[in-house]
Hints:
The chain is α+β, with helices and mostly antiparallel strands. Helix content is 31%, strand content 36%.
Amino acid sequence: MPNECYAYILISDEKWWNRLCERNRNNNGTRVFVRRNRVGPLKTQKLFFYVKKPIMQIRGVADFIERLAGDYKELWNMYGDESYLETFGEYVSFLKGRKTVTFIRFSNFRELDSPVSMKVIRKVLGVLTIPRGGKYLNRETANQLTV
C-alpha cells in the first residue's frame, strides 16, 4: 500500500460520533460508518474520526476493512446492524432521499485518550479546514497526529 494512503480522516457530526462510541462500548466488533454518497477511502490502513463543529477534534481511530458503495437497501440488509443507526427508518431519514450510499467498514475502534485539536491538525496538515469528503494521510503525518 502506498505510504500516501496510510490513513484517512472521516468527518462526523457530534450526534453520530456519540452514537458510535455508545454502540462500541456495548459491543466492540466490526462497525460501519455510513456516507450519503460515494465518498470515502478505497484503500487505507487506519481511519481517523474527526468530529466537526463545535468540537473540531480527531477523537478516535480504527483499522480500515473495506469500503462498499451501492444500493441503500441492499447495504442496510447486509451491514445495517454494524452501523450507529438504530432502525431502517432512522437510516432512510439520515439518507435524505439518496439511493446510493457508502458503507465504510472498520474494526478495533477506540476513542483517543487525548483528542487531537484543530490547532494541532492545522499545524501538521497545513490546512484551515478538513475537506468535507475526508483526507488521506501518509504514515509520517498520521504518526505526528497521534503521538
